[in-house]
Amino acid sequence: xxxxxxxxxxxxxxxxxxxxxxxxxxxxxxxxxxxxICDRLETVDxxxxxxxxxxxxxxxxxxxxxxxxxxxxxxxCKSSTKEHDTDQHIHFHCIICKKTFCFENVSPPGxxxxxxxxxxxxxxxxxxxxxxxxxxx
Amino acid sequence: xxxxxxxxxxxxxxxxxxxxxxxxxxxxxxxxxxxxICDRLETVDxxxxxxxxxxxxxxxxxxxxxxxxxxxxxxxCKSSTKEHDTDQHIHFHCIICKKTFCFENVSPPGxxxxxxxxxxxxxxxxxxxxxxxxxxx
DNA sequence: TTTTTAATTGCAACAAGGTTGCAAGAACAA
DNA sequence: TTGTTCTTGCAACCTTGTTGCAATTAAAAA
Lengths: 137, 137
Known about the structure:
homodimer, DNA-binding, 6 strands, Arc Repressor Mutant, subunit A, alpha+beta, 137 residues
């Protein structure tokens, strides 16, 4: 099973809940929040989802997508490990339908930051209106 | 008074609370969260701070800085109005001291986004360790 | 000035997102 | 089998932020 393989690669013990949560993330086309995962998986307690997402994050399995006023979202990293996150891209958050899109093939332009600051991660979030919400008006 | 002038320019009635909150933002070297403002101003109720920040935001007086897992922060716009926000820059959030810095002279590189998406705002947030936290270790 | 109307304030209660303590259950090794 | 560790689910809690409402204040009209 794909899920077990991924968990194994990140040194996480495979349990039924973890496989289910991972599968939910795998199936989704856009980043999911904790509550979206809970809604899709009514059998799993939110405390388990919370702890599982923390675990996945700590093991470098997830990207954390910060969409602003709303809640934190998570998406699977394609090619990242705990040490190296090579899979960063730009996100677009629709202020109407509240969905977050990944612009996979547009990578965030590197910028030079002032001396003394140590960069660990980047979050490039564009807000606006997505095509389907734009057309709906 | 500078504060009254700024409020007037954004068509906001000047009250004692609003002037105090604006002054707090003016004095700060980095973006402030609602709670940081409440801490500095113990006489003003947090509901007033909340409503005031909403008002300031609606009138284009503030930048909203999303620092991720923690809370929303606000900073004064230098040159923005309700219609045009020309004063966007990159922010750096220190994961240790939780302070957010503005990189004033590094403007976010424009990127071309896919067709159909309408861009309204950009948030470019770098996370890492700031100079003083780096030196403290 | 007095009256009427509208805006602002402060308190408390609430809501959403998320975390934590803890006891019970499952997995696993000795 | 027994002991140890990990995982789970429930409830309680915390934090950030908003809202209902009555009281106060400010502004406008008479």
